[in-house]
Structure formats: C-alpha cells, structure tokens
Write a structure and sequence with these properties.
The chain is mostly helical. The protein is built from 8 helices and no strands.
C-alpha cells in the first residue's frame, strides 16, 4: 500500500515505476522530493486517494526489476548517470533545439505558444549543457576522491541543487507552453516528433535530477538532504 505520508522522493526510490505517474500529475519528485505525497496532492489540488490507487497499480504492473541506484557505489552511480543521462542529453538537446526553432517558424503564426516553447527549449538546452559539463569537470571528480573534502563537496552540492531548481523551472515552463505535450490534429510530422521528444526529455531530466538529489549528493558531508 502507498503511504500518503511518505515523501515522493523516497516513493520513487522504492518504486521507480511511480515516477511516470507523478510526472503525469505534475508532481515534482526531484527538487520537491522531500514533500509527502499528501502534501504534494494538497499543493496541486488533487485527491490523494485516486492518485495513491494509480501508484499502487503501477507497482503491481511493474514490468521487471529495475536497478536500485542506492545499491551502487558512488563511482558506479556517477558512471551510470554519465552513460544513461549525460551522453544522451548531448545528442538530444541540439536536435530538439533545432526542431523547436523549425516548428516555431513554420507554425508559430497558427499557435503563438510555439514561439515561447522555442525560447524555453533554447534556455533549457543552454542551461543543461553547461550543467552537465560542470558536473563532469568539477562535481563528479570531487565526489570520486577517496576522501572528498566536506567543505568542497557541500559547496558543489549546493550549487548543483540550485542549478537543478533552475532546470526544473524550465521543464515546468516547457510543459506549460506545450499544453502538456498535446498535439493538435493539424500538426505536421515535425510538430509531432518534437512533442514526443520533449516528453522523453522531461522524463530523463527528472530522473537524472532525482538520482543526484536523493541518492548521490546526500552521501557526502555538507550535502544535506
């Protein structure tokens, strides 16, 4: 049974399949992962009962065992983050940025929100590209040292969390500007591909941030949860 008083961050750690359900309901389990499920529902104006039932169904229908990131050593977890999230982001961000500009140029007159979406995609891409470069150049090497200095780990962890908050804001704006990735009947193939890719991008970004905020960073002195 899903406990409404469990934090949403811990809920996703225990049951990764719950992330997609929370994402559909626009509940932040990354930077807002320390809020309880009941508190998150209150904030969003949702009835916790039906949402808990949907989460329980997702757990029952779980397709297979997923890796529990909490069991990985810090170097192994960092390697997983780089391979599973950073490397794909470096390919995806330029693609959606170019496609977003094209769709806004062609269809912006019909749907003015596409122009705002194009701006948000560009801002998100700039921020994320710089962020993952900084993590690999500074944060990760610091955390992988045999005995990381608490002050350095804490300072870098705070900077990382602050950047995650900024990224989360862009993701929320991206979802709003796309009307929750709703594709109109008249949309062309480029329009449809863009929205599909943006939804996948959101999923990867949220899971990436969640692993860092709730598994990696709390392991180090000064990186309080």
């Amino acid at each position: 049974m899903i406990d409404p008083q469990q934090t949403v961050g811990d809920l996703v750690l225990d049951h990764p399949e719950c992330a997609a359900v929370l994402q559909r309901h626009r509940i932040d389990y990354c930077c807002g992962g320390n809020q309880t499920l009941a508190g998150a529902c209150l904030k969003r104006g949702l009835d916790v009962g039906p949402l808990a039932a949907a989460l329980e169904q997702a757990v029952r229908e779980r397709g297979g065992d997923e890796m529990d990131a909490r069991t990985l050593s810090s170097p192994a977890l960092i390697a997983h983050i780089v391979v599973r999230y950073h490397t794909p982001l470096r390919k995806t961000l330029p693609f959606v940025r170019t496609l977003g500009a094209k769709v806004a140029r062609v269809h912006g007159g019909h749907n003015p929100r596409l122009v705002e979406l194009d701006r948000v995609i560009a801002e998100l891409a700039d921020t994320l590209e710089a962020h993952i470069d900084d993590e690999e150049a500074t944060l990760f090497p610091t955390l992988e040292r045999r005995e990381p200095q608490p002050a350095a780990a804490g300072r870098l962890s705070k900077t990382t969390r602050d950047e995650h908050e900024m990224v989360g804001g862009f993701v929320n704006r991206m979802r709003a500007a796309s009307d929750d990735y709703t594709v109109p009947d008249w949309a062309c193939n480029s329009y449809r591909v863009l929205f599909r890719e943006l939804e996948h991008l959101e999923t990867d970004v949220l899971r990436h941030v969640h692993l860092e905020n709730h598994v990696l960073l709390p392991r180090f002195a000064g990186a309080a949860r």
